[in-house]
Amino acid sequence: MTTAAAGGADEALPADRQRSGGTSVPAPRKGGPAPSGSPGRTGRSVTGTRRLIAALFLLPALVLLGALVVYPIVYSVYRSFFDQAGTGFAGIDNYRTLFSDDTIRTAVKNNAIWVVFAPTVATALGLIFAVLTERVRWGTAFKLIVFMPMAISMLAAGIIFRLVYDQAPERGVANAVWVGVHDTFAESSGFPKAHPLPVHPLKAAGGGAFVTKTVVHAGQPVQLPLVGVLPAKMPGDAKPAKAPAAGEDGAVTGTAWLDFTKGGGGKPNVIDAKELGLKGLKVEAVKDGAVVATAKAGADGTFTLPASADGAELRLPASNFKEPYNGVDWLGPTLVTPGIIGSYVWMWAGFAMVLIAAGLAGLPRELLEAARVDGANEWQVFRRITVPMLAPVLAVVLVTLMINVLKVFDLVFIIAPGSSQDDANVLALQLYRSSFGTDADLGVGSAIAVLLLLLVIPVMLFNIRRIRKEGRR
């Protein structure tokens, strides 16, 4: 009865006073004013703030945006249609230059290489690091180490890698490692600049080798003096040279030594007390153009050849004197762009790893475990579940790095030496070179800036579209 009475009472009340949840509230009248706080005719925004006040607060930001972004873009487009002096209308001549000048075409080609490889490699390494560090005990410390290069400026990173890629193995880390690996599997030369003097019993044999001026015989010690080796470059375990012992069974003996006395006072063709043996020097006995015996000098320079060397010429092959292997010319015309991309990946792989690791932390673990229970191995889980579910995060990282590499400048400017800077040229660097200096052409520089803008816009639109799509989910 009470309920029925209440229902009847509600029906008896006017429409604007009917109960709602036991409380009478006025119903909105047709054609009446909108409730307070709704964006209607009151001039208020959704948050209840008056639009005029919101516009006043936004005005400083809009002024800065116009002064620092909109005006430079508009002026660059305008300036790109004028000549070098800025007084004559050039039409699209500056844009024709972008595709006819060899230097600018090289910059465009290198930018394409950067956009394809640098973001892809950095994102792939970030994904690998993020997945593997989940299973490592010291994963947090590893992530910290990988991310640490992000704290270094581009300028500092460029200086670091300019030293890393130095051609000299004693300074460049990359070549020091490369030369070390090479020398492990290939015999290196011990005395690259050694040579005899005219008074020595040796003469040039062509191809960098030296031979004795006369044939040798058993029982007659052979002297093989050389000069041209710095004492500091001598083997550390070299000993003072000494005359050879008499050979047995018709063997030929001799001494190869550095015929140079530090401080002076020595005599040519005479083994002085302070002169060192050429340890490891290879000696060949040659008869009728064929090698019949070989030997290597010991720490004191002495060597012994078998009786078959009697009556032969002794030859010091060119392998004793070839220049040592100095590694790879990392900053040469061929490898300068891959080398600089490597330094970029070193810096930005940590950025990719951190973002991807955050995405991994949000994956539903029960789905991964269900796949493992169903018999999927780790590679199948990674390829068919982890990567597809991380696709939005990977897209964010990839697009961000693509925009970043389109304007890369510092690394190329610092790392690439002057001799190969044209080979490593990119659009941002060419923009700087065309816009500043004694032969600056602001028309061409502005055209390059417009081209960079046109290259960035599609990537930005793709990113905005992807963000809106994610927001609607």
Give the gist of this structure.
With 473 residues, the protein is of the alpha+beta class. It has 14 helices and ten strands. The two termini are 49 Å apart.
SSE topology sketch:
Elements: H1 2-12, E1 19-20, E2 23-24, H2 51-79, H3 93-100, H4 102-133, H5 139-147, H6 154-164, H7 173-185, E3 202-206, E4 209-212, E5 222-226, E6 252-258, E7 282-287, E8 290-296, E9 302-305, E10 313-316, H8 336-361, H9 365-373, H10 378-389, H11 391-406, H12 410-415, H13 427-435, H14 442-471
Helix pairs in contact: 2-14, 3-14, 4-5, 4-8, 4-11, 5-8, 8-11, 9-10, 11-14, 13-14
Architecture overview:
There is one protein chain. With 473 residues, this protein is an alpha+beta fold. Among the domains are: 95-169 and 330-440, MetI-like (MetI-like fold); 202-320, no CATH class. Helix content is 47%, strand content 10%. The chain is built from 14 helices and ten strands. The chain has helices at residues 2-12, 51-79, 93-100, 102-133, 139-147, 154-164, 173-185, 336-361, 365-373, 378-389, 391-406, 410-415, 427-435, 442-471, and strands spanning 19-20, 23-24, 202-206, 209-212, 222-226, 252-258, 282-287, 290-296, 302-305, 313-316. Strand 7 (282-287) and strand 8 form a beta hairpin. Helix 4 (102-133) runs antiparallel to helix 5 and helix 9 (365-373) packs antiparallel against helix 10 (378-389). The protein is elongated and about 115 Å long. The model is unreliable at 1-25 (pLDDT under 50).
